[in-house]
Amino acid sequence: MTRDAIVEAAIRVLDRDGPRVSMDAFAAEAGITKPRLYRQFIDKSDLYSAIGNRFADSAFAATGTDLTLLLQPPREAIAQALTDYATAILAHPDVFRFLAQAQAGANRDGATGQYDLSSAVAERFTKRARAVADSIPLDADGIDYLARAIVGVMIALTDLWLTDAEPESGEFVRRAGELVWGMIDAFLRGRGVEAAPDVPIFVTLAALNADQDEPGVS
């Protein structure tokens, strides 16, 4: 029994039984004893991290490619990314709830976090954001703060959204989109870029660079 197979078994349990499950349930679903499970995972935190990393990769993949935000109008690109993200979340809502509860529980009692979902996703998002900024080019100073803020807001909003008995994506995408664009817009304005939500950012930057290249424009 591999680590990946145990993670897949754990996700099946979470999908079926909800977020409040035990290591015994994970082991039983995988068809192994708990001692055998711990031969693959050092402890509970190790398994939580494996589940979280699988989930973070899935949620992050739904945000699109590096150039999505540049080639499409921001409003359209953000809405599409959030729609795909919402679809990914709704495929496994109790996996998100499980990871969020693990993180919140660790914070309440002061113990070492079993898994920090926001940090895991923010690390991935920051790398992509830096790659986009470098390709423009755009001053990337502080982009790690922007990435962490966006991810933090997204996770908090997702947690709120999933409190609905039957969560639907439309309202979530609209409200989250407003906040995400507001943060991106503020970041760009801090670097002298006034971007319109209905105009691709690369068009805005091309026009700005053309103005700066004109004689007499500094």
Automatic annotation (TrEMBL):
DNA-binding region (UniProt annotation): 22-41
Residue stretches making up the HTH tetR-type domain: 1-59
Pfam families (UniProt xref): TetR_C_32, TetR_N
Keywords: DNA-binding
Name of the molecule in the record: TetR family transcriptional regulator
Species: Nocardia rhizosphaerihabitans
